[in-house]
TrEMBL record, chain A:
SMART domains assigned: AAA (SM00382)
Lineage top rank: taxon: Bacteria
Naturally occurring in which organism (per UniProt): Manganibacter manganicus
Lineage: Bacteria, Pseudomonadati, Pseudomonadota, Alphaproteobacteria, Hyphomicrobiales
Keywords: ATP-binding, Nucleotide-binding, Transport
GO terms, molecular function: ABC-type maltose transporter activity; ATP binding; ATP hydrolysis activity
Protein name in the entry: Sugar ABC transporter ATP-binding protein
UniProtKB/TrEMBL annotation, chain B:
Domain ABC transmembrane type-1: from-to ranges: 74-265
GO terms under cellular component: plasma membrane
Keywords from the UniProt entry: Cell membrane, Membrane, Transmembrane, Transmembrane helix, Transport
Protein name: Sugar ABC transporter permease
Membrane-traversing stretches: 12-34, 73-99, 111-134, 146-165, 186-211, 244-265
InterPro entries in the record: MetI-like (IPR000515), MetI-like_sf (IPR035906)
Organism of derivation: Manganibacter manganicus
Amino acid sequence: MGSLKIENVKKSFGPVDVLKGIDLDVSDGEFVVFVGPSGCGKSTLLRVIAGLEDASSGRVLIDGDDVSTTPPAKRGIAMVFQTYALYPHLTVKNNMGLGLKQAATPAAEIDRRISAASAMLSLEPYLARRPAELSGGQRQRVAIGRAVVREPKLFLFDEPLSNLDAALRVNTRIEIAQLHRRLKATMVYVTHDQVEAMTLADKIVVLNAGRIEQIGAPMELYNSPANEFVAGFIGSPKMNFIDGARLGESVKTIGIRPEHLTVDTKKGAWKGTVVHVEHLGADTNLYLDCEQAGLITVRLFGAFEAAPDAMLYVTPTPGKTYRFGEDGKALT
Amino acid sequence: MSRATSSLPRTVAAHAVLIAYTVIALFPVLVIVINSFKSRGAIFRTPLALPGPQTFDLIGYATVLSQGNFPLYFWNSLVVTVVSLFLVLLFGAMAAFALSEYRFRGNTLMGLYLALGIMIPIRLGTVAILQLMVASGLVNTLTALILVYTAQGLPLAIFILSEFMKLVSADLKDAGRIDGLSEYTIFFRLVLPLVRPSMATVAVFTMIPIWNDLWFPLILAPAENTKTVTLGAQLFLGQFVTNWNAVLAALSLAILPVLILYLIFSRQLIRGITSGAVK
């Protein structure tokens, strides 16, 4: 079991309010990702759940028990950090076993769990090494292994992939996804990378300036963002926002995703000049300066040749535009 | 060294400056050591010459070892230095950990207060310290010296160590907390090993003034059984006659223990630097 409930959690550091009232329910076995720009409070929220920071007010419940005054080691959680945070003086095996040893687990049980976890993460050849003798990816696997052996109710990940290079990041991401499927444990994951959020999450929590902007499944956030912030944050390249008045619409802002625009050399809704072209291989990103819509991004699948300053016509896909009111909320 | 970053004239110039500095720094020490092996006449006739077959004389060392009680003085100096050093490093590191790790009201003020001692010489308070020691019956004990030197060494130790402790990964300490380590275990097992190079630096800076000090032993512990080496060497400096052989021999001997301690710490220092970054 490993459900998590957060009730009106607030946190201030002196005069700065970092969390302004967070309510969240996570059910057993769910993979929840906190995503948001840096400084939005996502790491602080994770640290409050872990017990590394005390909430200024509000309650944290794990499996229905209020753990607001429980020290981190007694909360039944395990945490994986961005900087790995392995104990430099201990071998891989002792790094993984230290938490269990502190909790007075029998040695045979510790050995059993370490061998199970190291088999799962293919760490067996490295058990006798120290962290300094491992590569970045191996270190992060050890850090994950250290969390697994504790058999926690709740796994907490604090940007675990941020220090890895791009190729390793994808591999480790897949490993984390497989781990979740195998252990069926509840996981809370913090990242600023929306790709990680989209690929891993059962449920994404978008945070901004200490508040929850929207909670939902990845595709739900992509297809029906609650407001301009979520619309701009989920999806890459970012959604185009066009002033409604420029297009003769009654709403404040019109949003169109770059992948929901088509271009044509002869006719279309808006006329524009090419500012810049990015060839990504599978995709091409066009940056166009349109007379009606201003500067917009278009994402085309496959290769597309366009010279800078060339004239093109852009047409939005019908039914794929979003409308936002004065307060930034989505209108239906 | 790669060819792109070195040129012969630059290398020569850099080495010339470094060698000149080394010579200037070592010259007085060398003069003391070579003259300690010469006869009294030779010290005055040719102070810069190396001891030769005619001038070689161990009379200074013989005097030092026969007069006074130099083994005891050495022991006293060593006890005072090592115990003070241990206390400075222990309390300094603990205070630095508290200042760098915990948020509490008055943290910055406390840090400034503890660092203030770097700017105010402890000798200004000599009279008050003497009164305090008389009142508490600690005059002519090594405890008096240890207490004073611990107080003298703490400000710099706290200042340097708290800066280094801020650099220790916060994630590492948090990982320890999640694994159920106590704050003491986190301090002794995780943080201290990582700041060992800076501890060695602090140890060297703390140790040398303590070993060389004449002021406080003279005032607080001038009794025969609590004399330190520097105070003991004063035995041979008279108002009218000075036994230079003995003074130089005593000083040469006094260099040895502090040199050994320095070598121990500097090895730590180098090992700390070469063992690589924390990450």
